[in-house]
Write a structure and sequence with these properties.
Length: about 375
């Protein structure tokens, strides 16, 4: 359920300053948010409404709060560091009076700031999987690879309590990180999540056949898991696979075509570029989130039904590698694998006609030497 009203103990808050710098903290009595421009006691945030502005305090102000009965963490150590420092300019990080906007973090903010073990999927890729993978409320989803839980949290949020998510994670320590992140975000372990630890092939054998509406794979070799996925997904179900390299993407797509039980795969990547808008200075930011991974989307056919695929013309040879070419396959044929004889003849006819026209025009325009 969405959280509304005043901020409470056990909730995460996001503090954002005027420069866009963000700090995320879990509220607890007696806690302290440490910033480069002062400190913010958790007790001053508890009971505050979203959209408020809080101002940092100096170390001296925090010390006064001690006498008032509020004891910030490491307050004495902070004061000692300020008073005993031999570098006065270092005191700047202890000044107060810096303002932060207080909000509850969005799910994307939570994911980017949460403790992680494995690399997470970026929100731009997660959004693509949820949209093009058609993952909605009430669906039964199978996920391979929990990592730090970024994709799992979005899947749990998307299917809701009416749905069900089964996640298979090979490493127990990653499964532990993902489960703890979910417990912090949802305020407890979601009842509609079944987090299993072990090898995908072995764990998948115990899953109910043709039970899952959607499957999300985030692993090194998804092409080796297609046989198991076909046994678990319902006909018409959507498979979304996330891979990072072109070789992984190519092997997966060709394997899906070879098996014939998947519709023509859709392959895409999402590139994110933010913009600066300040008066007439409207331009892209110098930094952007470029390539992070490829997303392959396909749908499962009915068991025993061959998928329809586009037929390539026989004149195009896009599969023979030059290192594997037979003596009968000349180098010229492989270099022109995408150029048919018919197209070559047409190009030559057009160029010969253009050359004739140009030559005729030059002869007519040449001065008479006589």
């Amino acid at each position: 359920m969405p959280k509304r009203g005043p901020l409470c103990v056990g909730e995460k808050v996001q503090l954002t300053d005027r420069k866009g710098a963000m700090i995320t903290a879990l509220l607890e009595h007696g806690g302290m948010v440490q910033t480069q421009r002062g400190v913010i006691p958790h007790d001053s945030l508890i009971g505050m409404s979203e959209g408020s502005v809080v101002v940092t305090q100096t170390s001296a102000q925090s010390s006064e709060a001690d006498h008032a009965g509020v004891v910030p963490e490491n307050a004495n150590a902070s004061n000692a560091a300020v008073q005993g420092s031999s570098k006065p300019w270092k005191h700047a990080r202890h000044i107060g009076g810096w303002s932060y906007t207080v909000m509850r973090p969005r799910l994307a903010d939570f994911v980017l700031s949460m403790p992680r073990g494995a690399q997470i999927m970026y929100p731009k890729d997660i959004a693509h999987v949820l949209t093009m993978g058609d993952i909605r409320s009430g669906m039964r989803v199978l996920e391979s690879g929990a990592g730090s839980g970024a994709m799992s949290l979005h899947l749990l949020d998307a299917v809701g309590e009416q749905g069900h998510l089964t996640t298979i994670e090979r490493r127990s320590e990653f499964a532990r990180i993902a489960s703890l992140n979910a417990a912090v975000y949802f305020g407890g372990m979601p009842a509609w999540w079944n987090l299993l630890t072990g090898d995908f092939d072995e764990v998948a054998k115990g899953c109910k056949p043709h039970f899952y509406d959607r499957v999300v794979l985030d692993m090194l070799d998804p092409w080796n898991r297609l046989e198991y996925v076909e046994k678990l997904i319902v006909p018409g179900g959507v498979l979304s696979a996330y891979v990072t390299t072109t070789t992984q993407m190519s092997r997966l797509v060709e394997k899906m075509r070879e098996r014939g039980s998947w519709t023509e795969p859709e392959v895409s990547e999402t590139i994110q570029r933010d913009w600066k808008v300040q008066g007439l200075a409207v331009r892209p930011n110098h930094q952007m989130i470029g390539h992070t991974g490829f997303i392959v989307i396909s749908r499962a056919m009915q068991v025993g039904v061959e998928a329809l695929h586009r037929r390539e013309r026989a004149t195009k040879n896009t599969y023979t590698d030059i290192d594997d070419a037979t003596p009968s396959e000349s180098l010229e044929e492989l270099e022109l694998r995408d150029l048919s004889d018919r197209k070559l003849r047409k190009v030559l006819r057009d160029l010969e006609h253009q050359a004739t026209v140009v030559q005729s025009d030059m002869e007519q325009g040449a001065p008479d030497e006589s």
